[in-house]
Amino acid sequence: MEELFLIGIGTGNPDHLTLQAIKAMRQADLILIPKKGPDKSDLAGLRHAMLAEHAPRVAVAEFDMPKRDVSTGYLAGVEAWHDAIATEWVAAIARAGAGREFSQKIRRVALLVWGDPSLYDSTLRIAARLAPQPKVTVIPAVTSVQVLTAGHAIPVNEVGAPFTVTTGRQLRDHGWPEGIGTLVVMLDGECSFLTLPPAGVHIWWGAYVGMAEEVLAQGPLAEMAATIPPLRERLRAEHGWIMDIYVLRRKG
């Protein structure tokens, strides 16, 4: 492998693919698709659908996504998980290349990265584990932050003011960052907004943003704290998985 394309595909809406992403798909000799179990089979299905429409002649190889074990600690568990994923990539490429003639050698490999490879995604860190190190080309995508704020028709920041993009874990462990009026919260499986004093806080929430299953909700946190958690659980039960994101803003 001489070059690795990390192609951001947005939030699952095929219309959000960029022309640059489509060109990169077509340039690849092989595209890797992770399998995350039957509950998330539609994520692989969406990737296959995008390829069938835009790059039907490119070879595809699936690989089993390793399970993450954080019993030895969160950071140590993530490091071991990334090592295991890199090993799966190499094995999948080797299987795909077995029996190929030298003229058909796999030189360019691509991964279709959910969301954007630069924003709370570890694909770049996993790619850094490959040896020998290929040239890594990143194709940016429409992010879930953009899709959420577009869905609610709001700007992400107030006039001249900063905002912070953070995770549910950080919000639970450290609270609201000092001096910041607006938070974008990602990777939150525990409704961490419930740990905050709700007075004066507004929330704009979305699940499956950009997808056909998209659900949006917004309102004062004091009201939505009782509405969003059961809605989230119902959606998870219906689909077998959930990805959500939200914006929190303090008045004034």
Automatic annotation (TrEMBL):
Keyword set, alphabetical order: Cobalamin biosynthesis, Methyltransferase, S-adenosyl-L-methionine, Transferase
Any Pfam family: TP_methylase
Enzyme Commission number(s) of this protein: 2.1.1.152
Chemical reaction(s) catalysed: precorrin-5 + S-adenosyl-L-methionine + H2O = precorrin-6A + acetate + S-adenosyl-L-homocysteine + 2 H(+)
Pathway(s) annotated for this protein in UniProt: Cofactor biosynthesis; adenosylcobalamin biosynthesis
All copies of domain Tetrapyrrole methylase, residue ranges: 4-224
Keyword Methyltransferase tagged: yes
Protein name: Precorrin-6A synthase [deacetylating]
GO biological process: cobalamin biosynthetic process; methylation
Organism of provenance: Paragemmobacter straminiformis
